[in-house]
Amino acid sequence: MGVGLMTAMGAAIGAAMGGLAGSMKQFAEAAAGGKFAVSPEGGDALLKAIRDMARWVDDNTQLASYLARQQPLGSSHGAEAMKPYLVEVATDQQGFMPQLKGFRDTLADAEQGIMAAMANYDNTDAGAERTFRAE
Asked: How confident is the model at residue 115 (pLDDT cuts 50, 70, 90)?
């Protein structure tokens, strides 16, 4: 795989992660604004999945930091050319490590959004109950 192709793939992944981050922020804002609600059962399942993924990211961030070090690829011309590039791919603005951190941040936004949506459900449910009791 050529360096240009790998760079283009990194840019595409970076753009996708940036879009995901924006979507999660909008999701959390919509929930905070009462635009939708999630039942406790559905919310609990979503929160479990989000928290499990966040735990996985947290547990593996230290392992992934290994990618930021120059790898022992040997001493051939090809290996010597790739060593610094691999570190760059892992650590530059569009690299794996910053994208992993950004993904972790989106999980926090998603968790916040689900919790707000669950509160909206409770508020909607309580409002409906008051309406029926008033009749």
From this structure: very high
